[in-house]
Amino acid sequence: MSQYLAYTGLLSTATLCVFVGSYGAMHTPMKTRELRKAAGIDPNRDEEEGQSQSLSSQNAYIFPILGSAVLFSLYLAFKYFDKEKINMLLSFYFAVAGAFAIPIVIEHLLKVARGGKATNVDALLLRIRIPYPSKKKDLAPPITDASKPPMPRKNELTVDLLGFLIMGAYLYTRFWPLTNLVAISFAIQGIMLITLDSFKTGFILLAGLFFYDIFWVFGSSRLVGGGPSVMVSVATNFDGPIKILCPKNLLEIYKAWSWSGTLPKLAFALLGLGDIVIPGIFVALALRFDQMHASNKNPSLNFTRFFLDFPKPYFQACLGAYFGGLVTTMAVMHIFGAAQPALLYLSPACALSVVAVALQRGELSELWNWVDHTIEPSPTDKSKAA
């Protein structure tokens, strides 16, 4: 029973990360930007520079190679060097990254939830503003509208203490819910940050990582002379927020504590962030494809990146396929009692779901040739609007 609760926890957490991250990865449609330009409005006024990094087909081809190099390097490091020292260094890196990632994710998702309306999150994020000396005076007038959050001045440094407090608590306690909180922030930020430029790129990426996952889970044992696979070895040795953890013996622990007062050690079921972020960026692409269709059909200045009320056949099918692929992964893992390459099931599930919808709607050619131009705001458009 406890194992099923753990699987349910992993399923719900992973699917929620993909769902939330996909909405966070939306951009204002090109049709809306054209209407803004015609009206003399900055077409990219609600875009955030540097929020997303576009992944092209050239990047997708080398992604599995780079991933393999990093994975095998970590395996060798854990094998030949002090595991505790390596984990200490990696923990420091993730602590710094997490301290900045958590506030960014919270602030952006609150903005999405409020339909793009300004939200003062200074109190929530425990934000402090530190002025530093500057030779030039900041001539920008202060914001007096109480409905808008205060904006940082050019000579002002903002620090969100909430992220540092959470990461400090994580480093001190290593409490698994805190590990999950940080990992969830990384997963959502990853889906928001890495954006596919087309379905062609998405298919290439999913295909490459399909074989990557199979090899490093099933085929790498022979490469390293037997024993656990490289993927399993790194996942179990790496003590960091790169995986979602759910205890699979909670009921047994409760019974032991109730009957004898002893507390057995927690045993965890886990899911790596790669099995969330990689399919997640593909699901997010499906949502932007739905957004493009809806904005072209009903163009409006109000159809911004924060407008969510439109038909989503591709997104719903792809998200459902992701959930089904995870269920299949965990079912096979439970039946055979061995680690499974999740992308073996997730990659074809996500890819085939959008192809099936495109075939049913007669849009396969459009899907194959579509390129998402909403990812990077155009500097020339900004200058023209100004």
UniProtKB/TrEMBL annotation:
<feature type="transmembrane region" description="Helical">
    <location>
        <begin position="266"/>
        <end position="287"/>
    </location>
</feature>
<keyword id="KW-0378">Hydrolase</keyword>
<dbReference type="GO" id="GO:0033619">
    <property type="term" value="P:membrane protein proteolysis"/>
</dbReference>
<dbReference type="GO" id="GO:0098554">
    <property type="term" value="C:cytoplasmic side of endoplasmic reticulum membrane"/>
</dbReference>
<feature type="transmembrane region" description="Helical">
    <location>
        <begin position="90"/>
        <end position="110"/>
    </location>
</feature>
<feature type="transmembrane region" description="Helical">
    <location>
        <begin position="178"/>
        <end position="196"/>
    </location>
</feature>
<keyword id="KW-1133">Transmembrane helix</keyword>
<dbReference type="GO" id="GO:0042500">
    <property type="term" value="F:aspartic endopeptidase activity, intramembrane cleaving"/>
</dbReference>
<feature type="transmembrane region" description="Helical">
    <location>
        <begin position="60"/>
        <end position="78"/>
    </location>
</feature>
<keyword id="KW-0256">Endoplasmic reticulum</keyword>
<dbReference type="GO" id="GO:0098553">
    <property type="term" value="C:lumenal side of endoplasmic reticulum membrane"/>
</dbReference>
<keyword id="KW-0812">Transmembrane</keyword>
<feature type="transmembrane region" description="Helical">
    <location>
        <begin position="203"/>
        <end position="224"/>
    </location>
</feature>
<feature type="transmembrane region" description="Helical">
    <location>
        <begin position="6"/>
        <end position="26"/>
    </location>
</feature>
<dbReference type="Pfam" id="PF04258">
    <property type="entry name" value="Peptidase_A22B"/>
</dbReference>
<dbReference type="GO" id="GO:0006465">
    <property type="term" value="P:signal peptide processing"/>
</dbReference>
<feature type="transmembrane region" description="Helical">
    <location>
        <begin position="314"/>
        <end position="336"/>
    </location>
</feature>
<dbReference type="InterPro" id="IPR006639">
    <property type="entry name" value="Preselin/SPP"/>
</dbReference>
<dbReference type="InterPro" id="IPR007369">
    <property type="entry name" value="Peptidase_A22B_SPP"/>
</dbReference>
<keyword id="KW-0472">Membrane</keyword>
<protein>
    <recommendedName>
        <fullName>Minor histocompatibility antigen H13</fullName>
    </recommendedName>
</protein>
<comment type="similarity">
    <text>Belongs to the peptidase A22B family.</text>
</comment>
